[in-house]
TrEMBL record:
Pfam families: Abhydrolase_6 (PF12697). InterPro entries: AB_hydrolase_1, AB_hydrolase_fold, MES/HNL. This is Alpha/beta fold hydrolase. Residues 4-259 form the AB hydrolase-1 domain. It comes from the Bacteria. Keywords: Hydrolase. GO terms for molecular function: methyl indole-3-acetate esterase activity; methyl jasmonate esterase activity. It comes from Duganella vulcania. The lineage of its organism: Bacteria, Pseudomonadati, Pseudomonadota, Betaproteobacteria, Burkholderiales. The keyword Hydrolase applies. Gene3D superfamilies: alpha/beta hydrolase (3.40.50.1820). The keyword Hydrolase applies.
Length: 270
């Protein structure tokens, strides 16, 4: 039996794993889905939903579990499991990146997001993603004290971004049942900005010792396959699995995803 801690991606919350969790439990595993700060039932103000706060949420969960766990992250929150593995003191058995941002030491999620010219998400957020402004913010976030000051000074309009409702299905759910888009219209929320601009601090001695498994989504229109494979090359993975799916296989192919997670357990020696 393995214990999985499941992290949603941008705009979502723990609810997005509702089809997957029963399949993992039926196979004898334990699965815990988290609401990260400022998502779902968590009422953290967006300006305080930093990478450090997200990592603390994960580590607090892991500390309450009685065995090493596999952290599974979708999309943006690959950055959270990477940083959590650096700080977890050996309690993480493996990291599974589901079409997720796999970012090396010293880089931020936005360094890679700006490379994904074909992403329907990058082209359809509000306020719009301005590449030059994003590059300036990345520079400021690499500058020590400014990283902590900026979220406290900038207006609420710059604290979060949203995906335009008109592209929910095309960008995230094009291969999913119609009721998923209806569910998303009711539940998707704004995404806090600051974790995505924060450079990761990773070492070979901690993060580097944890096996990394990547599950790529071949028809992804949000984090496109070209970017997924660039991140795999830049960081390296113990194993790569492929799903012929869009960005949300936990909705479109939950049984296939559950099988790959079970294979990931074997890859991590659990």
């Amino acid at each position: 039996m393995a214990t999985f801690v499941l992290l949603h991606g941008s705009f979502h919350a723990a609810w997005n794993w509702h089809k997957l969790i029963p399949l993992l439990e039926a196979a004898g595993h334990r699965a815990v889905a988290l609401d990260l700060p400022a998502h779902g039932k968590d009422r953290t103000a967006p300006r305080h939903a930093t990478l450090a706060h997200c990592v603390t949420t994960v580590l607090d969960c892991v500390a309450g579990l009685d065995a090493p766990v596999l952290l599974v992250a979708h999309s943006r929150n690959g950055i959270v499991i990477s940083q959590a593995a650096e700080q977890a003191g050996g309690r993480i058995a493996g990291l599974v990146y589901l079409a997720a941002y796999l970012v090396p030491d010293g880089r931020a999620m936005m360094d890679y997001a700006l490379l994904d010219a074909e992403s329907l998400v990058a082209r359809n957020v509000s306020p719009p993603l301005d590449a030059r402004r994003a590059a300036r913010l990345l520079g400021l976030f690499r500058s020590g004290w400014l990283r902590w000051l900026l979220p406290r000074l900038l207006p609420a309009s710059l604290q979060t971004h949203r995906l335009k409702r008109a592209v929910y299905r095309e960008a995230l759910y094009h291969d999913c049942p119609d009721d998923i888009t209806a569910l998303a219209e009711a539940l998707l929320e704004s995404e806090p900005n600051w974790a995505g601009f924060t450079p990761l601090r990773l070492s070979e001695e901690a993060y580097g010792r944890v096996p990394r498994i990547y599950i790529e989504c071949l028809q992804d229109r949000a984090v496109t396959i070209g970017l997924q494979r660039r991140m795999q090359r830049d960081s390296g993975c113990a194993q790569v699995y492929s799903l012929d799916s869009g960005h949300s296989p936990f909705f479109s192919q939950p049984a296939a995803l559950a099988r790959l997670l079970e294979l990931s357990v074997e890859c991590c020696g659990r």
